[in-house]
């Protein structure tokens, strides 16, 4: 009975190609949209998480000024002495990297590239989770003397030296002085904000202050905390120390900000999560629209199908055979639509992910969920009108107008 | 009446539509006996209950009261499934509106009852082709109803009805949608099925010309049998 009913179901699908096609199409579009949107959202979230991990763990960043935008409180930059004070007085701080940045053009032979020069200590590499791919970091002597040495990022290497050339030992020109390349950083890729993290030249702090900025200013401090449990305590201590050093009255607000990576991570992931939900909601609407399309097709064909059911019953089909046939039709069409939708979504997700340089993550949960939802729509709208018709007296089904 | 057990025996069959004050009694107690091999034309004006009686005979509808014996089986006690099986194994139907499956070839329409019977593919095809040949449609197996004339569609419907070698062929106004010449061809076909294969035929019609092909004419008026007589010339 099952075999014959399957035959009848497949014949019926083939016979009503347009109806079958429209049903499948509705499911394909809905399923593909939902899966693609959610997969891209997950990729974006993962990308952000990876970026945050690449910033380094247990990281606390201190910047002058409070708030951005209107109502921002400007703050005086930090000085070298502030970094020293943090280093010597905050027990929980493992490494302290004072940072100053300057825009500059780097030149090597005929190539030049506009980049950002960062002045810091050797700790900068460890605090910022940088790996040195070739060469070395700064020695203490170089830092103290403010020697013209630099460690460059992958983008700068590519632009000045080409992809294959080992830059270590070469000299590049930054503004008016020549600078020896002593190290090359391992590539990190884009940041979550889309900035190229590898577009960087790092020099000892004193070198930048003497030869470029001409002051003792430090634009921010990156601090690596010994263990994550003490982050909050370190932040409080930092705030107290800096308030004292910046001579703030008790009733004055902080004119600096202390942030840790967890906070940054929370802000960024909250944003991407909202975006993912938004995309998912839009996609869910398309799944719903697809479902309504299927419902329309099914309801429009109910009259014809009711008569068909009457004919089948009259020539001796059992009610359960008719129902099984309709159930098989619905399941076959919905499953086909679901599978094509998943295939389409996979192709679209992989394509769009690489286009937007996001990681592609296959999410079995959303694939299964959309598939089941589409199958449910197909079965509900394909099967239930049939169930009503098959319960009629054959003559009433035959006479259905 | 004959001594042998009748093929069909209606006793006091009633059918009421609706309930309460809106109730309408379409059949007011029908007694009718049909012997195997007979050819009965059921006539009567519109609303006389002839089609209702036919639908009950064909187990497409259920009576409100009375008793219906089909080959000795009490039909009104059968379940929905058993009635379907009775249709599957003993009855064939021809309708005024043909009732073929759309976009489905003649062959597939005719083999449909055999699929429900679970016949293997080869036997099914052979039987369907033979039935189509018998109604004069050899070579038309792969045409869909839309590609066939009304008379041809009705022939396909007849082929579908007889492919299972039913005991009874129930025809409800089989020529109602056809012109006179085609109608006579269809009637000749039905007569030959009755005469050569011994299929009992019950045919509803309101055209005396068509009723003339039957051996016996039963007249319905207002939900009752008004007359029941042998047809002299067909006898």
Strand fraction of chain B equals 25-35%
Number of extended strands of chain A: 12
Helix segment count of chain A? Answer: 13
Count of discrete alpha- or pi-helical segments spanning 4 or more residues of chain B:
7
Number of domains of chain B: 1
Question: Which regions of chain B have little confidence, pLDDT < 50, spanning 5+ residues?
Answer: none
Low-confidence stretches of chain A: none
Summarize the structure.
The complex is a heterodimer of chains A (401) and B (235). Chain A is α+β, with helices and mostly antiparallel strands.
Question: How would you portray this structure in words?
Answer:
The complex is a heterodimer of chains A (401) and B (235). Chain A is 57% helix and 18% strand. Chain A has 13 helices and 12 strands. Chain A has helices at residues 2-15, 17-55, 80-89, 123-127, 140-145, 154-161, 205-213, 231-245, 261-300, 302-314, 319-355, 364-390, 394-398, and strands spanning 59-64, 78-79, 93-108, 111-120, 132-135, 149-152, 171-174, 177-185, 200-204, 217-218, 220-225, 256-260. In chain A, strands 3-4-9-6-8-7 form a 6-stranded mixed beta barrel. In chain A, strands 2-10 form a two-stranded antiparallel sheet. Helix content of chain B is 34%, strand content 26%. Chain B has a 6-stranded mixed β-sheet, sandwiched between helices. Chain B is globular. In chain B, α6 (180-197) links the parallel β7 (168-172) and β8. With 235 residues, chain B is α/β, with parallel strands linked by helices. Chain B has helices spanning 50-57, 80-90, 106-117, 121-134, 150-162, 180-197, 208-211; strands spanning 8-17, 24-34, 39-43, 65-70, 73-74, 91-94, 168-172, 200-204, 216-221, 224-230. Chain B has 7 helices and 10 strands. Classes of the chains: A alpha+beta (401), B alpha/beta (235). Chains A and B meet through α1, α10, α11 and α13 of A and α2 and α3 of B.
């Amino acid at each position: 009975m099952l075999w014959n009913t399957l035959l009848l179901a497949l014949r019926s699908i083939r016979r009503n190609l347009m109806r079958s096609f429209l049903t499948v199409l509705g499911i394909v579009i809905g399923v593909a949209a939902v899966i693609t949107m959610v997969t891209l959202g997950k990729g974006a979230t993962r990308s952000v998480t990876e970026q945050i991990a690449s910033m380094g763990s247990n990281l606390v960043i201190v910047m002058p000024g409070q708030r951005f935008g209107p109502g921002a409180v400007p703050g005086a930059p930090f000085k070298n002495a502030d970094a020293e004070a943090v280093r010597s007085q905050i027990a929980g701080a493992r490494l302290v990297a004072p940072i100053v940045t300057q825009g500059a053009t780097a030149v090597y032979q005929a190539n030049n590239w506009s980049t950002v020069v960062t002045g810091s200590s050797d700790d900068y590499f460890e605090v910022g989770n940088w790996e040195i791919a070739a060469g070395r970091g700064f020695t203490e002597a170089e830092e103290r003397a403010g020697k013209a040495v630099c460690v460059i990022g992958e983008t700068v290497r590519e632009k000045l030296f080409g992809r294959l050339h080992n830059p270590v030992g070469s000299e590049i020109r930054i503004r008016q002085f020549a600078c020896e390349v002593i190290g090359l950083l391992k590539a990190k890729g884009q940041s979550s904000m889309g900035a190229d993290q590898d577009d960087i030249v790092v020099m000892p702090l004193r070198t930048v202050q003497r030869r470029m900025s001409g002051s003792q200013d430090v634009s921010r401090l990156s601090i690596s905390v010994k263990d994550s449990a003490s982050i909050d305590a370190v932040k409080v201590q930092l705030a107290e120390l800096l308030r004292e050093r910046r001579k703030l009255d008790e009733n004055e607000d902080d004119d600096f900000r202390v942030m840790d990576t967890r906070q940054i991570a929370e802000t960024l992931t909250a944003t991407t999560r909202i975006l993912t939900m938004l995309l998912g909601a839009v996609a869910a609407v398309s799944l719903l629209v697809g479902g309504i399309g299927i419902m329309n097709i099914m309801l429009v064909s109910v009259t014809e199908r009711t008569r068909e059911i009457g004919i089948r019953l009259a020539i001796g089909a059992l009610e359960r055979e008719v129902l099984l046939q309709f159930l098989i039709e619905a399941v076959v069409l919905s499953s086909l639509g679901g599978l094509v939708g998943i295939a389409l979504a996979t192709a679209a997700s992989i394509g769009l992910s690489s286009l937007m340089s996001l990681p592609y993550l296959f999410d079995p949960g959303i694939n299964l969920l959309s598939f089941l939802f589409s199958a449910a729509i197909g079965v509900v709208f394909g099967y239930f009108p049939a169930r009503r018709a098959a319960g009629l007296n054959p003559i009433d089904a035959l006479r259905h107008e | 009446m004959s001594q042998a057990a009748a093929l069909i025996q209606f006793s006091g069959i009633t059918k009421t539509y609706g309930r309460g004050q809106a109730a309408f009694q379409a059949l007011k107690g029908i007694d009718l006996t049909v012997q195997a091999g007979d050819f009965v034309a059921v006539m009567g004006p519109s609303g006389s209950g002839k089609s209702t009686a036919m639908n009950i005979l064909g187990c497409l509808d259920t009576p409100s009261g009375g008793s219906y014996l089909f080959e000795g089986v009490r039909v009104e006690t059968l379940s929905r499934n058993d009635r379907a099986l009775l249709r599957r194994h003993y009855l064939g139907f021809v309708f005024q509106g043909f009732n073929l499956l759309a976009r489905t070839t003649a062959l597939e329409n005719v083999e449909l009852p055999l699929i429900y019977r679970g016949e293997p593919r080869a036997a099914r095809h052979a039987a369907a082709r033979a039935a189509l040949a018998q109604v004069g449609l050899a070579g038309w197996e792969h045409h869909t109803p839309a590609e066939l004339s009304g008379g041809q569609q009705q022939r396909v419907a007849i082929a579908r009805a007889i492919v299972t070698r039913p005991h009874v062929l129930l025809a409800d106004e089989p020529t109602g949608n056809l012109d006179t010449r085609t109608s006579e061809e269809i009637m000749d076909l039905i007569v030959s099925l009755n005469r050569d294969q011994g299929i009992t035929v019950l045919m509803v019609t309101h055209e005396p010309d068509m009723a003339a092909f039957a051996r016996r004419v039963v007249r319905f008026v207002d939900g009752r049998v008004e007359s029941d007589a042998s047809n002299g010339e067909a006898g």
